[in-house]
Amino acid sequence: MRLKISLLKEPRHQELVSCVGWTTAEELYSCSDDHQIVKWNLLTSETSQIVKLPDDIYPIDLHWFPKSLGIKKQTQAESFVLTSSDGKFHLISKLGRVEKSVEAHCGAVLAGRWNYEGTALVTVGEDGQIKIWSKTGMLRSTLAQQGTPVYSVAWGPDSEKVLYTAGKQLIIKPLQPNAKVLQWKAHDGIILKVDWNSVNDLILSAGEDCKYKVWDSYGRPLYSSQPHEHPITSVAWAPDGELFAVGSFHTLRLCDKTGWSYALEKPNTGSIFNIAWSVDGTQIAGACGNGHVVFGHVVEQRWEWKNFQVTLTKRRTMQVRNVLNDAVDILEFRDRVIKASLNCAHLVVSTSLQCYVFSTKNWNTPLIFDLKEGTVSLILQAERHFLLVDGGGIYLYSYEGRFISSPKFPGMRTDILNAQTVSLSNDTIAIKDKADEKIIFLFEASTGKPLGDGKHLSHKIEILEIALDQKGLTNDRKIAFIDKNRDLYITSVKRFGKEEQIIKLGTMVHTVAWCDTCNILCGLQDTRFTVWYYPNTVYVDRDILPKTLSERDASEFSKNPHIMSFVGNQVTIRRADGSLVHISISPYPAILHEYVGSSKWEDAVRLCRFVKEQTMWACLAAMAIANRDMITAEIAYAAIGEIDKVQYINSIKDLPSKESKMAHILLFSGNIQEAEIILLQAGLVYQAIQININLYNWERALELAVKYKTHVDTVLAYRQKFLETFGKQETNERYLQYAEGLTDVWCNQTVVQRIISTWFYCD
Predict the structure, then answer these.
(1) Where would I find the IFT80 second beta-propeller domain in this sequence (predicted)?
(2) Of 335, 368, 510, 558, which is most buried, counting CB atoms within 10 Å of its CB?
């Protein structure tokens, strides 16, 4: 990936350009110390003066009123705020008319920013004050005051916090009074620029120490650049949070969100004082010290899937290369390419007006349909369909171009969704809520309606990343997620009335991915690369989970690696320095999944005997129990030395009724309530009571005996024998109540006979 730079031969402005801002993806406004506001049309390459400001107004910062938020359209999208050196900010219409000028600070107003909703404006100045204004320019509050100039400011993603500079320090101050303020030393020189992205929640800072840095929202350092030759004068996040741009003297750099650099350009611009990204995130504009406005278009993006590599060579041109036979196809588009995704044997490309769907079998005849809104911010693909996210909503389409559904939920903000907060499978869409980050909304893909009984998935702390498994039946669909503590959990997405178990799979997990061909999960866990060959083991037999996973040292991936894809048995990992590392995992577990999915149990056993790995036998044991195949389960458990479980399985096989067998299999998996329900529905009341006695669940055993008016004396006898064994006296009031009148229950011959005769065969 690189920037294709374009620069006029002669500068359009006579003095340094202080700020720039995009109205659309093809139109830009620039402000300069020559007092001109100039409009640039990139389609026609024309420039025109919008207005000449009074000679005493030197513009410093410009920010357009936000156009849209989620589904709501704003009416005031045709204006911008301009801060200036005379201590005022000016609300100016698109036509150049100054609607209002407000005395804001003593000394220059160094920065002004609208919040994401467009309901408030924050300004900072040389007087060290941070002020919040209404959208009409009325002062709401002075948020903070300090003794040094504040050079830059940014809103938090929820518009509830403000980030600003204080010399070498960065400060995050909530709008609520008395809320905790976060402050830390960020640079060794004065900080000149900051930016805070709403999608990834990461912070950028640039300073006179010639470095740029990336921070999380708690002030923890994620990346620090090497010192440049000159101070870093500008930084800006791309709207989707995947890239950022850095400007310095004769320097423009394109970087990944983790900090490493894609491209370094050296245009003849002087210092770049301000950088603005276009709405669609495909190009940047820089305000230059020598009067130029520099434009950079992001090209040479690459997408890879199996043996295909797709490269964006020009704004409207893609090159497809098949590495198996070196065949090359050129794809031409009518409009510039904004987003693309290559997966599941399809290439999906969104341009500013249309969506193209190519099959990897035929690159010549794409399926084309018009988009409702041009700026697609995210494309996700599953085997049967793909998801488009734009400013207006979330849309699911089939690969034939047929619209399927559009899920919605209260307070949905599509502008902050990314691949970590949205997940797609063949039958389910999962979306993490931004308003309450402990909640995941689950939707049916075919209808867009909430899944199951309509309840969302709720966790006890904030969730960072979600991922749906890709294969198997809808009823078995699982979702894995990482929470704020970096713990990995798994749970079922089907929720009907009863609360599904959320089970922890691992700790200190940084990133996860599901395999696209079978339900194998991989993740980077602390200093290890871990593969869970059969994550469903946690629902079947948690004791053997450690035997079903594979671990290897991950120190070679350095700090903060990220899993890019998991295709077949190949995992691609992006290291912190930007390099890609490919890891191959064993192909045998995937074959085992395939055999079990087709109920080929003999082939599965044969495969395990051929491979001779404990991991394979442990996976087969769990799969067999999950599918109620006791013969295979017995073989697999014997192979991994779980003799006690082999004996229990043998005892299950000898049970007379189908319901008894099913109940004891559930009991084996730890599903006590479900086992009890099956026995009670089949009328096997004594067995239901007996399993509670065997588990020392005395309260429930007595409750069932009393409810069904049978075997109360049996329960009392077992309880008395239990207490005698440990030399204890009865203290439970219910047991004392029912034991009245029964002297030595255990010695009653009829009770003993009944216990023997009804051990398994009663009722």
Answers:
(1) 300-588
(2) 510
Q: Is the Cβ–Cβ distance between 620 and 566 less than 8 Å?
A: no
Q: What is the pLDDT of residues 147-202, one digit of tens each?
A: 899 999 999 988 899 999 999 999 999 999 888 999 999 999 999 999 999 988 99
| pLDDT on residue 475 | 83
In whole angstroms, give the CA distance from residue 434 to residue 415: 11
Classified as helix, coil or strand, 132 is strand
486: pLDDT strictly greater than 80:
yes
- Say whether pLDDT at 318 is over 50: yes
Q: Which residues contact 239 (CB under 8 A, 6 or more apart)?
A: 199, 277, 279, 280, 281, 377, 415
Radius of gyration (C-alpha) of the chain in whole angstroms: 32
709, exposed or middle or buried, with CB in 10 Å at 0-12, 13-18, 19+? exposed
Could you give the angle at the alpha carbon of 533 between the alpha carbons of 527 and 556, nearest 5°? 25
Alpha carbons 719 and 514: distance in angstroms, whole number = 49
- Name the helix (H) or strand (E) containing 516: none
Report the SS3 class of residue 622: helix
pTM: 0.85
Distances (CA, A) of 312 to 284, 353, 632: 17, 18, 51
Sign of the torsion angle spanned by Cα atoms 399, 405, 407, 408: positive
DSSP 203-219: EEEEETTS-EEEE-TTS
Rounded-to-integer distance, Cα 105 and Cα 89, Å: 9
d(CA 239, CA 393): 16
User: Whose structure tokens read 């004068």?
Assistant: 233
Q: Is 197 exposed, middle or buried (0-12, 13-18, 19+ CB in 10 A)?
A: buried
Can you tell me the distance from the alpha carbon of 100 to that of 89, in angstroms, rounded to the nearest whole number? 8
* Residue 313, burial from CB neighbour count under 10 angstroms (0-12, 13-18, 19+): middle
Task: Report the distance separating Cα 740 and Cα 146, nearest Å.
Answer: 79
Where does residue 367 rank: exposed (0-12), middle (13-18), buried (19+ CB within 10 A)?
middle
What are the φ/ψ torsions at residue 365 (nearest 5 degrees)? -120, 85
Q: How does 438-477 read in b/e, with b if 16+ C-beta sit within 10 Å?
A: bbbbbbbbeebebbeeeebbebeeebbbbbbbbbbeeeeb
What's CA 611's distance to the chain center, in Å? Answer: 36
> pLDDT-derived band of residue 752, with 50, 70 and 90 as boundaries?
very low
Q: Give the model's pLDDT for residue 77.
A: 55
Partnered with residue 368 across adjacent β-strands are 356
Q: Which residues are registered as beta bridge partners of 246?
A: 235, 253
Task: Judge whether 414 and 390 are in contact, CB under 8 Å.
Answer: yes
